[in-house]
Write a structure and sequence with these properties.
Elements (H helix, E strand, L loop, with lengths): L10 H15 L18 H11 L4 H14 L3 H6 L2 H8 L5 H19 L7 H4 L7 H12 L8 H9 L8 H11 L5 H14 L27
Helix pairs in contact: 2-3, 2-8, 5-6, 9-10, 9-11
Length: 227
């Protein structure tokens, strides 16, 4: 049975208090947060690669793979110098590591041939790259180029619904709903905040509601058991 305790007012009235509370608490959560590997000022190439590798892979595993890969190939040109087997060895054991090794090689080749070694800064062009979906495109645009974009991963989709801010079934629906709900200056930041919360406290099952910094602002939609 759904836990509907907590606030149930208009999402537009609740979103800013939630944002402010999370911003004040997120640094203390000590979350791995994949998106923080791609802090502002980092090369869009590294953001692109980091997000491709993170798909269907635990954050800790992705961190290790990125460290090894970026040490061996910090640029697009260096990726092209590696064969697929070596890339696969460096990124193992990320999910679908052989497929991702092939995608990384293809991406590097396309970027060199079509974009003179640069990462494109439009969603349409990014989505044409192997292994790139809306999540990856949004993260590259937001983090790499400072272009407002809402990136929705499993954490953002789950917690946005749990907070009662959206009522959606797919990440694509969540992205559209959040774009209508969130003030544009917070589009990029929303991902960082909710990923940090999801990695540390707001787990898919048995979230740690008793120590959550926004517990008083959350109706816990769909939560059956918490700690």
């Amino acid at each position: 049975m759904m836990n509907t305790n907590g606030p149930t007012s208009n999402p537009k009235d609740r979103v800013l208090p939630i944002l402010e509370s999370l911003k004040g608490a997120v640094n203390a959560l000590n979350a791995p947060v994949i998106t923080l590997l791609a802090e502002k000022g980092k090369a869009p190439y590294k953001i692109l690669i980091a997000t491709i590798l993170s798909l269907r892979t635990q954050d800790k595993t992705t961190h290790g793979a990125l460290a090894r890969l970026f040490e061996a190939a910090p640029t697009i040109e260096k990726i092209l110098e590696l064969d697929e087997a070596e890339i696969a060895r460096l990124i193992y054991p990320v999910g679908f590591y052989r497929q991702k090794a092939r995608q990384l090689k293809q991406v590097a080749f396309i970027l060199k041939e079509r974009y003179h070694g640069n990462v494109p800064n439009s969603e349409e062009e990014l989505l044409e790259l192997p292994g790139v979906g809306k999540k990856t495109a949004a993260l590259v645009l937001g983090k790499g180029f400072g272009i407002p974009a809402v990136c929705v991963d499993t954490h953002v989709h789950r917690i946005s619904n749990r907070l009662g801010l959206v009522k959606t079934k797919t990440p694509e629906q969540t992205q559209a709903a959040l774009m209508a709900l969130l003030p544009k200056p917070f589009w990029v930041e929303w991902n960082d905040l909710l990923v940090a919360l999801g990695q540390t406290l707001c787990h898919p099952t048995s979230p740690k509601c008793s120590v959550c910094p926004i517990a008083g602002l959350c109706p816990r939609m769909g939560v059956k058991r918490s700690r």
